[in-house]
Design goal:
Elements: H1 10-36, H2 51-64, H3 67-75, H4 82-106, H5 114-118, H6 125-152, H7 161-184, H8 197-223, H9 230-261, H10 264-274, H11 284-301, H12 304-307, H13 310-335, H14 352-382
Length: 390
């Protein structure tokens, strides 16, 4: 099947070469960072987590969201998602790969990651986050390889894969729950120390991930002449609607708690995000843009006539994805450090090196998705009689 990746149109190869060029730029930027240290980034003593961890946090949710197509198809025999299931799992594989890569570039010496396994510390949430991320990647690779291989041969997958699929469902929820616990367990960071953080993470994940999957399906429909079905896309749009409504509701709860309580330690973080604090306002335009995108997308999604129109649905999904990318990435991570426990403000702005490395890793993820989708589409179009095995 891998030979399918090497066959394509000029447009396909142009896209692949563009991604490879971006990966190359990102790798050169990383070499510069590796030899000069993390001082070339915008991070500091007061803000030790920046763009890299923000992308990691967002992408863990994208990876976990594959469960939103796995549950209906494998657990409830919802056959409309037959073509979506493997595409969602492919997205999970790419997203987890990007998550791991962002962690590696965030460390001054990436070889230190091996210490997590050489010297395991079960009472550390960082240890468990590493375990669940690597475990989820392995589960999705096994599931996609076995199920798609069976589909290609038009036979039922082996019986032993069903328990693995069922295991991947709670595992998907666990990877984002443990990531939320990493933040919520830090007592000195009141912005993160909230019991609703894990539900917020899951709600945003189940909105952003399916939104990306819908956009990818629309791209396949437009450029690859491969249709997963309008009904399936619209059903996935309903999932995005419920998840996005829950996410906006959870954020409103956080705002109410912070503002009504009047506790400065809670209010100052939100003040910094939306109005600036002591003259520092880097995040303000970004957070207002995120709010507008989130509310605007929700209004479209809550209107059935607009949501059922694929053009409007695609627009809403773009708004959801980028709105949550801002809010859950930079907004959530950076604001937790501003102000610091001593009430001092040290603003963080990502450096050009960080941005180039981040773009390179995102390009790596899209290259993985491109290759995997190329295989899936080529195999299914070569033999239209193939029906996804169940």
């Amino acid at each position: 099947m891998l030979e399918k990746v090497l066959i394509g149109s000029k447009r396909y190869w142009g896209w692949v070469l563009f991604l490879l060029a971006m990966i190359g730029v990102g790798f050169l930027a990383y070499l510069y960072q590796y030899f000069n240290g993390l001082g070339v980034t915008g991070m500091s003593r007061d803000v030790p987590w920046g763009l890299y961890i923000a992308q990691f946090t967002f992408l863990v949710g994208v990876a976990a969201s594959a469960v939103m197509v796995v549950i209906p198809y494998y657990l409830h025999d919802f056959k409309l998602f037959s073509k979506l299931a493997v595409l969602g799992e492919f997205v999970a594989v790419a997203a987890v790969t990007m998550c791991i890569t962002f962690i590696l570039v965030d460390m001054g010496q990436p070889t230190r990651v091996t210490n997590v396994f050489l010297h395991p510390t079960p009472n550390s949430l960082m240890f468990w986050d590493t375990v669940v991320c690597f475990g989820y990647l392995i589960l999705n690779v096994i599931i996609t390889f076995v199920t798609f291989g069976a589909e290609r041969k038009s036979v039922a997958p082996p019986s032993w894969i069903k328990p693995v699929i069922y295991l991947s469902i709670p595992w998907a929820i666990s990877i984002h729950t443990v990531t939320a616990f990493l933040y919520a367990g830090l007592a000195a960071r009141p912005f993160w120390m909230t019991a609703i953080l894990a539900p917020r993470f899951l709600a945003s994940a189940f909105a952003a991930g399916p939104s990306l999957l819908i956009l990818l399906c629309l791209i396949l429909r437009r450029f690859a002449d491969y249709d997963v079905g309008e009904v399936a896309i619209r059903k996935l749009g309903v999932i995005v609607t419920y998840a996005m409504a829950a996410n906006v509701f959870f954020i409103a709860l956080e705002l109410f708690t912070a503002i009504y309580s009047g506790i400065p330690a809670h209010m100052e973080h939100f003040e910094y995000m939306y109005f600036g604090l002591h003259g520092h306002n880097f995040l303000v335009p970004w957070m207002w843009l995120s709010a507008l995108l989130s509310v605007g997308s929700l209004l479209v999604l809550l209107t059935p006539s607009l949501r059922n129109n694929l053009k409007w649905l695609g627009t809403a999904c773009v708004m959801v994805f980028f709105g949550l990318w801002i809010e859950k990435g930079m907004g959530l991570v950076i604001t937790g450090f501003v102000p610091n426990p001593l009430e001092e403000v040290t603003e963080y702005v990502p450096s050009g090196v960080e941005i180039m490395i981040a773009l390179g890793i995102w390009s790596l993820g899209f290259l993985i998705i491109t290759g995997l989708y190329k295989i899936a589409v080529s195999v299914r179009k070569a033999d239209p009689t193939i029906s996804p095995a169940h």
